[in-house]
């Protein structure tokens, strides 16, 4: 069995289990809504903070826990991915438009060579990207992204608020990010 099929199968299984975590204890009503490609969770039903630690494409280390207090937009991408190329400008535009309001972005490069990833990112993104050729970072999310591209938006407490399992546009992403940036952290 090749590694991609194994990883895809594992991610699908984790996604099925993770969606169960979005149900309330009462009558089984979902507090996380999903249209199959986008999952949005209410503040009281957001899953725990994922552990995202890795080597940056440009060198050095990144740890998402250092961004606590900020909204963090995590985008999974690959240089080989046509939808990733299509959404790159929209991600950068949203980053530039929202960073002053306590928003940061992180790319997670998957299933790629480092040289191709660096070449792809030059001139497209001013925010950092983790190099994750084995796609292991996705396994750290209770609601995994399980597609490429995928965008996960963490609230100021580092909890998963929104998962988008397809390419995004700035017209879709910016209002989500602005709404989360306006929320008060639960830890305050």
UniProtKB/TrEMBL annotation:
Its main location: other. It comes from the Bacteria. InterPro entries: AhpC/TSA, Thioredoxin-like_sf, Thioredoxin_CS, Thioredoxin_domain, Thioredoxin_ResA/DsbE_sf. This is TlpA family protein disulfide reductase. SUPFAM superfamilies: Thioredoxin-like. The lineage of its organism: Bacteria, Bacillati, Actinomycetota, Actinomycetes, Micromonosporales. Residues 36-182 form the Thioredoxin domain. Keywords: Cytochrome c-type biogenesis, Disulfide bond, Redox-active center, Signal, Signal-anchor, Transmembrane. It is found in: Cell envelope.
